[in-house]
């Protein structure tokens, strides 16, 4: 099989899962009306498949900050921080993130994906070990592969399993990085952080927490799981993304270890890529301010999450273990998931379809992402439709 | 390499593979995990966790990059098991 034939084989496997050209992946969105509505084809749909957790995609403060930055500094930086310089906004946002987490250092990356790639590959290398949750996001897997460290997985959110694997490492724990996520993107469940911290202290390894989905969502000021659990000081490195609750593009790592600064000189995903554009930085800074003061948004978000999570459960769907902004209906087969996804779209509700192997344990998911801008009426409409479609996934 | 530990690993792996794949292909040391048994990457990673537990060892998943056949997987596990403290 030559290279192109291999791609053809992969395409055939994909088509076998998704018959008659169903465009479930990369669906064309023709117009975006608001944080909760858009046009797909000729339908005005309710957006329930975005990571816009605080509903800030159209926040006037962010839009005007981005406009002003474009007018002032142009559309792009046209190069990397290392070669082409750090704009005032890059440095200011790094200070603001560090201050937000009461940390001494912060680094901004061009995407959240690169934040994990750059941080992990900067922290560990050949001969070191990473111990990662089996449900880790691809950016964590890829960061580990890029690093050249030995990669060992532990069972998803299973503390006893993590401990067993730490024990087996023996003396190697000293150069071991444990990685977990605040909220997992597939089932919306949270890491058992207190137990992980207990193990980190007992075995004296290093801990990185990815708050991609929990930033803005958990904790009084929205720091994430570290704030909800009061364990901020126990986590060595926190990474996250601007692409979800902050509604732009980019990522960050913060830490109280001064050694974080060294990543700027060794981490390829930081060095060899263009820095975030002025508009991106400006809207992110404005959004971070809204996020910190966004207690009312978090309350609205959680009211919506609880309403939909309970409704799906009552209707007889199998859902993830914790309520939260990611609510996944777990079904047995890709066909059932596809049917449910399609019927929801026919009812003008756009959600995410997740098929194996992306979905855990061979299941398929119809995943909803709730946000603070959804109204209670929209939530009950979604609940009604799910309830009506329940028999599709028996 | 025909010591009993090696045979034990081979036996365990063949048993697990045949229950994982539900195929009627006879599994031999030369069987290719991907092209013949269609073991996808997630299944292989989960199998590795089981093997780690069965033999109380750590098998870094990056070491799997060079593994194609059942024998190569057994060799890897054997090597880790016999060099572990
Ligand atoms: C847990 C997690 N980490 C990192 C990322 C990468 O972030 P981004 O999409 O902003 O590059 C994502 C999202 O895609 C994610 O879900």
Please characterize this protein's 3D structure.
The complex is a heterodimer of chains A (394) and B (85). In chain A, helix 9 links the parallel strand 8 and strand 9 (237-241). Chain A has 2 domains: 14-47 and 295-393, Alpha-Beta Complex (Aspartate Aminotransferase, domain 1), CATH 3.90.1150.10; 60-292, Aspartate Aminotransferase, domain 2. The two termini of chain A are 41 Å apart. The mean pLDDT of chain A is 95. Chain A has 15 helices and 14 strands. With 394 residues, chain A is α/β, with parallel strands linked by helices. Helix content of chain A is 41%, strand content 16%. Chain B is mostly helical and 85 residues long. Chain B has helices at residues 4-21, 41-55, 70-83. The longest helix of chain B has 18 residues, at 4-21. Chain B is globular. In chain B, 19% of the residues are buried. The mean pLDDT of chain B is 87. At the A-B interface, strand 6 and helix 7 of A face helix 2 of B. Bound molecules: pyridoxal-5'-phosphate. Pyridoxal-5'-phosphate binds at residues 111-113, 116, 137, 139, 181, 185, 210, 212-213, 241, 243, 251 of chain A.
N- and C-termini, Cα separation of chain B: 20 Å
CATH class call of chain B:
Mainly Alpha
Provide the domain count of chain B: 1
- In terms of DSSP E residues, the strand content of chain B is under 5%
What is the H-and-E element order of chain B?
Answer: HHH
**Number of helical elements of chain A:** 15
CATH homologous superfamily caption of chain B: ACP-like
Q: CATH topology of the largest domain in chain A, anyone?
A: Aspartate Aminotransferase, domain 2
- Helix coverage percent of residues of chain A? 40-55%
* Principal-axes shape call of chain A: globular
- The helix/strand class of chain A is alpha/beta
Residues in β-strands, percent of chain A: 15-25%
What share of residues of chain B is helical? 55-70%
Order of helices and strands of chain A: HEEEHHHEHEHEHEHEHEEHHHHEHEEEH
* Overall tally of domains of chain A: 2
